[in-house]
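Minutes, project check-in
Item: structure for the 342-residue chain
Input as provided by the requester:
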Amino acid sequence: MKLFENRIGWIIDLIFCLGFMPLIIFLGPTYYWLAVYPTFAYVSIVWLYVVYFAIRFSGMPRMLMGQKYGLILLVLVIVLLGNYLLSQYPLPKVTFNTTALTDLYNDIRHSSQTMGVWLMFSIVLGYSLSMSFIMELYNQMILKKEMEIQKNNAELAMFKAQINPHFLFNTLNSLYSLLIGTSEKAENAFIKFIDLVKYTYTSVDNETVTVKDEIVYMSNYIELQMLRLNEHTLVKWSYDVDDDSAQLPPMIMITFLENVFKYGVSSHRDCMILIHLSLKNGLLMLTTENEIVKHSDEFRTDAPVGIENCKARLNTLFNDKYELSVSDTDGKYKVNLKIRLK
């Protein structure tokens, strides 16, 4: 079933190339042209294939959903202009004994040529547009199905891993009461830890959270991680957002934070971690940079797993509305994530 889902586009294209087009050729005027005007017939056939694949792979449905009307108009103008030029293809002149009969025959033939070209063009254009929208609808259904599966898997994993929330939070509150008065630093750290746990438990049921909540979560995570670091590791964390009420999936960036603290800290040599989050005009950008302190072989076998899992989630949630670039050069690991939020 999965194999069929991945190759449905190929199947549609094969049906057009091996079934639909031959039917048009043998039932339309092209069959006659092959016998009388073979060059024009071959040019027409090639053109119809070009029209089909140009429409299929131009992403017309996505351009329509993205309100890229200029691009849509450009594609349509190009194919319409190309078809007009084909309809004016100069066929060999046929002469009769009288000029009037010659002109009449050539005019009728030209009209027949024009109508035949536009008729086949209209059929192919309609078929390609229909298949493009059907494929987009199919892909959206598959995407929705994958999102539901991933959400169900995440919830299932959470339910399997979690202790009864009431018991957990009551226990944490009891432990916190024991810390009161012993150390202000320990109290603050424990409060941040409780907030992290609460956020993890409550956000799993929400499809989206605000950027403000996610920043608080990230800040708490970073500050807790810094408690275990000494003076050799410098952490620079900053953010700049123009709309902290914007919505995004919860904990979408935690994998990248985990990686920088897992592979980029040292207790015996100086190193620096950079984390910056920005949101401008609906474009969310996360940048992280850290030195690869952990052994390179361990890093290359472990780190990509988390990144690949995160890519799978980003693909499911944002499809083509995100960019993720990862580089590992000169002992530095850099991540640049851009997400176009709705």
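Outcome recorded: The mean pLDDT is 81.
No further action items on this chain.
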